[in-house]
Amino acid sequence: MTVCGHAAPLPDPADAVPRPGGGPGDAALPPGPADTRRFAAASLAAGDPTGWFERLYAQARDGHAVVPWDAPAASVHLREFGLPPGEGRRALVVGCGPGRDAEHLATLGYTVTAFDIAETAIALARERHPGSPVDYRVADLLDPPPAWRRAFDLVLESNNVQALPAGIRARAIGAVGEFVAAGGTLLVLAAAATDTPGEGPPWPLTRAEIDAFAGRGLRPVTVERIPAAGSRLRLRWRAVFTR
Questions:
Q1: Range 4-40 burial, b when 16+ CB lie within 10 A, else e
Q2: Can you give the residue ranges of the Methyltransferase domain (predicted)?
Q3: Per-residue pLDDT reduced to its tens digit, 84-120
Q4: Which CATH number is associated with domain 76-242?
């Protein structure tokens, strides 16, 4: 993600793709997570909670870093959810990164808009999916186009809010909900907080944070905690809300 749009650290085990790389002193972590935390720490120290997404993508493009969520297929928890056919309904993918989830929704018949705060991520999505019907945009979750307010029948928030520090997280959760049209659906996928959270990002979401997506006229439909075997992030949320 980025807040502002894009799929956040770390990936589901089934989504991960081994890649070379990693910075000095990062031997205790796989290259992708180490790169993520290195860039995030520098950005947060400078008072910029979202600028690290563009820097990470740009460095990865030049072969100097790894984007850990850059996997070849849509999230397994999205693929297994069983969304109904889109039939032209409007969908929005928050923090789309290279576009794997957005392309999946397009194959289901949704008219998809997908955004990321990182210009390099959007350039990569367009490059990887030439001729795609997805409308890829550079945009900021915390300052989105006014025309997107309550304009989408389906909104996908996958692993973005968990990449944000506490100071802006509540604002981001509220912004996600404002994209959902009357009668529309919000699908939230995220790491679930446990008693051994470890170093972030990501900072897994608590149940209270998941419940907060139900603000601004949304109501919960289902909230599931799904085991993620083989991952440090042992549990994941899959939550559905409607307006």
A1: bbbbbbbbbebbbeebebbbeeeeebbbbbbbbbbbb
A2: 92-184
A3: 899 999 999 999 999 999 999 999 999 999 999 999 9
A4: 3.40.50.150
